[in-house]
Specification:
Elements lengths: L1 H14 L3 E8 L9 E4 L5 E3 L5 E5 L4 E8 L6 E7 L4 E2 L2 E3 L5 E7 L8 H7 L1 H6 L3 E15 L4 E2 L2 E2 L13 E15 L3 E11 L22 E2 L5 E2 L10 E11 L2 E10 L8 E7 L5 E8 L9 E13 L4 E15 L2 E15 L12 E5 L8 H7 L6 H17 L2 H11 L6 H4 L1 E5 L4 E5 L7 E3 L3 E4 L2 E8 L4 E12 L4 E11 L7 E12 L8 H11 L6 E16 L2 E14 L35 E13 L3 E5 L2 E5 L6 E10 L8 E13 L5 E12 L19 E2 L22 E9 L17 E10 L6 E13 L2 E12 L3 E10 L7
Parallel strand pairs: 1-7, 1-8, 14-24, 24-36, 41-46
Antiparallel strand pairs: 1-4, 2-3, 2-5, 5-6, 9-17, 10-13, 10-23, 11-12, 13-14, 15-16, 17-18, 18-19, 19-20, 20-21, 21-22, 22-23, 25-26, 26-29, 27-28, 28-30, 29-30, 30-31, 31-32, 32-33, 33-34, 34-35, 35-38, 36-37, 38-39, 39-40, 40-42, 42-43, 43-44, 44-45, 45-46
Length: 823
């Protein structure tokens, strides 16, 4: 009965509008999925769904000539007379008449082949669709499988009824209808007219035309490691080609060419490309790529299928139907994604001007998520499958339940249960009805050891209220700290309000008493310092006491320009070691003092107790930044072609010790350059100058991020010197530091026998620091990234050589990219 009801509802959705509809099947009755159905001589087209069902928009009754195209089948041309609408027309496809051939095309033998023609004419063919407007439809779903009932003894959620008893189900289903403008190579604007998410009538889908843009007429396709297109000029160095068969469509001969990577780990596809004999244009694409080839080890495989349609009036092939299928898994849980895209109603002479494309790449209309079922019935080019329709019905029913007050209250009561380990591991109290929560971080996860406090605990409590209607949020919280050797309790309080999600205007008031590292960027990780101190007696962390009140403000004044300002009163005093405890205290030298300048002087402070006022203004310039506008806010999209520049002026005044007043001007530039198959280069340059600051407190010096632990804590080392002592080069004068690092992303290692099986990435780097009165400090690094086991890749190992007026040392740094998360 339920199945019959779904079928009836599905047919109602199809029949309720002015359409030509029906099914596409093979001769044996099996449905033909993703067949392209188009009105001949126009760009009005659609596609069949997985069940072979299709619906094609028609403005009025009359005569139509349909062209039905699908890989593996002969293109059908059907003349129909639709006396009234909707009009039903079922299509039976015949197998294509392939002419078998086995012509191998090697890397050094592409001359006079259809592949060579495709490569030679790539730019010319791409220019035929260099600029256009089109209707764009996207439908995507994520299906999760094999979710265990328990993980580490803890019972997992069924995702609000989305999972069945086997731990499987559709966890996301959404659709969008858009009008897009596109100009090669990378200019796009998308206006989302309609958006629909199963089980969330207030949400807006994240499907987008830019995310669906896989253009094989480009040299490279963008992933973490750029993949080479099979028709790029570089393709013969990466692929083996073999013509398997030929067939005809629209009186044009088509070659089915098998594509195979020459190397096992290069960022290259495998599968088939279909090429027109006369021009080398793409007729269709069926290509796969494994995640390990493009630096995404969790991704098992991505399959891209594209089918191009022919407009006989203009003589142009345009992409009509695209499907993306991918899967990724971790710890036995598998997620599969299926996305369908339909491009129709092309305008290949759009008359774009210099003002057509700006920094806005997407705009979602405010009422996009309020479209009726009738609207979707008219605009949805691919009918829903029975499973998708069932998911919409089921999730809409579930949404009515899970958004009700009784359900929210009951759900919160379960989540809010206080457990035995909550004091140690933390706890979050939810109030979903009024949209607020209180989070307690726990004492165990904040435990650390340093020589000023010995063991110290730093739990925190934070209350957050979110107003989804106004897109505002308010946070009130406190960070606590207790040092057992000091027998000292400290606390800071925070009140922060975010006014909106468009210009990100945020006002924050913070104050209290805290213990801080001399370097405000906190280069010494709490966990790493605890281990190095307790087991090796290397107490690198140096601390001082700060009592303060700070008011800060930030806002994006125009796109790409963030302004920051702060005003602070601070009273700072030095601290001294209060413990000699060590796990292996008899095997190592005593601890160094808490004075970074005099490590073996245990009585002289690094600075004198003082109070002062501090003010700062700063600006960040993200040149060429793109953005998406949704009713819920603005989403920034960095432009990889341009650097990010940050400038700051900071002033200390009104100090109780007059010499401690200072002026500090600084700037930094970060730039990441993607060089396609050759990897990625990251650079960071920072420079600054102090004025009238000859005898300021050591707390206000410019400190540099050194590292003496042989443990790295980030994916890139563009803000750290791997062997530099933490405070030996601190300065209150001028300074320049530079970092450069190139990750070859497998370009070299994938060509070395045996190592190419491991999918490691070679990384080379250079770091330099110049301050007055010293020779420049330099580091040269070489290492391997993407280390780990199977799909879990979080390790990196680098060999470092350091120089300052000659060679001063070398060694190895082991990178653990998850350490910052545990800080």
């Amino acid at each position: 009965m339920r199945k019959c009801l779904l079928l009836i509802l599905m047919m109602l959705c199809i029949c309720a509008n002015a359409q030509i509809k029906g099914t596409v099947t093979a001769a044996d009755g099996e449905p033909v999925a993703f067949a392209n159905i188009a009105v001949k001589g126009t760009y009005n087209s659609t596609a069949s769904n997985e069940d072979g069902t299709y619906s094609l928009a028609a403005e009025k009754p009359g005569e139509y000539t349909l062209m039905i195209r699908s890989l593996g089948y002969t293109t059908e041309v059907a003349k129909i007379t639709a006396d009234s609408l909707p009009y039903t027309f079922n299509i039976i496809m015949k197998p294509a008449a392939y002419s078998r051939t086995q012509t191998a095309v090697t890397a050094n033998n592409t001359e006079n082949t259809v592949v060579d023609k495709a490569i030679t004419n790539r730019s010319r063919n791409a220019a035929k669709t260099a600029a256009y407007e089109a209707d764009f439809y996207s439908r995507g779903s994520y299906t999760i499988k094999n979710v265990p009932r328990k993980l580490l003894g803890k019972r997992l959620s069924d995702l609000q009824g989305r999972l069945d008893t086997t731990g499987s189900g559709i966890i996301y289903l959404s659709e969008t209808v858009s009008r897009i403008k596109y100009q090669r190579p990378d200019k796009m604007h998308e206006r989302v007219l309609a958006s629909k998410i199963s089980g969330d009538d207030k949400g807006y889908s994240y499907n987008s035309a830019s995310a669906a843009e896989f253009d094989f007429y480009q040299k490279y396709l963008s992933f973490d490691v750029s993949a080479v297109s099979p028709i790029s000029e570089e393709a013969p160095d990466y692929y083996r080609f073999e013509t398997e068969s030929t067939f005809y469509d629209n009186n044009q001969k088509i070659y089915k060419v098998k594509v195979t990577p020459l190397e096992s780990n290069t960022a290259a596809f495998h599968g088939y490309i279909y090429l027109l004999e006369e021009t080398g244009e793409l007729y269709a694409v069926e290509l796969n790529i494994e995640g390990r080839r493009v630096g995404q080890p969790l991704l098992e495989n991505l399959t891209i299928k594209q089918l191009y349609g022919y407009n006989g009036t203009e003589g142009i092939w345009t992409k009509n139907v695209q499907s993306l299928n991918f899967a990724f898994s971790v710890f036995g849980v598998k997620v599969e994604g299926d996305f369908l895209h339909v491009y129709s109603n092309y305008n290949l002479n759009p008359g774009f001007t210099n003002k057509t494309f700006g920094n806005e790449i997407m705009f979602v209309e405010e009422d996009a998520n309020k479209k009726t079922g009738d609207y979707w019935g008219r605009k949805r080019p691919i009918p829903l499958t029975e499973e998708e329709l069932a998911d919409y019905i089921e999730k809409d029913s579930i949404e009515n339940i899970i958004t009700s007050v009784p359900y929210l209250r009951a759900s919160d009561s379960i989540r809010n249960r206080y457990k035995l380990l909550s004091p140690a591991l933390g706890h979050t109290y939810y109030n979903s009805i009024d949209s607020w929560q209180i989070k307690y971080s726990g004492v165990l996860l904040s435990l650390g050891f340093n020589t000023v406090q010995a063991y110290a605990l730093s739990p925190s409590f934070y209350y957050t209220f979110t107003d989804d209607e106004d897109n505002t949020s308010t946070t009130v919280g406190t960070d606590l700290n207790y040092g057992f050797a000091e027998e000292r309790f400290r606390a800071t309080g925070t009140i922060s309000h975010k006014f909106n999600n468009f210009n990100k205007r945020t006002l924050t008031l913070k104050g209290g008493s805290s213990i801080q590292q001399f370097n405000p960027e906190r280069p010494i990780n709490r966990i790493v310092n605890s281990i190095s101190t307790l087991f090796f007696k290397d107490n690198y962390m140096k601390l001082y006491d700060n009592t303060f009140i700070n008011l800060s403000y930030e806002e994006e004044v125009v796109n790409g320009i963030m302004l920051y300002g702060s005003f602070e009163y601070t009273r700072r005093k030095p601290l001294f070691n209060n413990t000699n405890f060590s796990t292996l205290k008899d095997l190592y030298d005593p601890y160094t003092s808490n004075n970074p300048l005099l490590p073996y002087d245990y009585e002289t402070p690094a600075f004198l107790k003082h109070d002062m006022l501090r003010a700062s203004v700063a600006a960040q310039f993200s040149f060429g930044q793109k953005y998406r506008i949704r009713p819920s806010g603005k989403e920034d999209v960095p432009n990889p072609l341009y650097p990010v520049v940050y400038v700051k002026f900071e002033k200390g005044f009104g100090a109780s010790i007059n010499d401690y007043n200072f002026n500090h001007l600084s700037a930094k530039v970060n730039y990441i350059l993607n060089i396609g198959q050759y990897g990625e280069t990251g650079t960071a340059v920072r420079a600054g100058k102090f004025f009238d600051s000859d005898n300021i407190a050591f707390t206000d010096y410019r400190h540099f991020n050194g590292n003496r632990t042989h443990v790295g804590r980030s994916e890139r080392y563009l803000n750290v010197f791997n062997f530099l002592p933490y405070y030996t080069h601190s300065t209150n004068d001028s300074y320049v530091e530079g970092h450069a690092e190139h990750n070859f992303k497998g370009f070299i290692t994938n060509k070395i026998p045996f190592i190419n099986k491991l999918n490691y990435h070679l990384v080379g780097g250079y770091h330099i620091l110049s301050v007055p009165g010293r020779n420049p400090y330099m580091e040269y690094t070489v290492g391997l990234d993407n280390l780990g086991w199977g799909k879990v890749r979080f390790l990196r190992i680098d060999y470092i050589r350091a120089y300052e007026n000659g060679f001063i040392g070398d060694g190895v740094v082991v990178g653990l990219s998850f350490l910052d998360i545990l800080e």
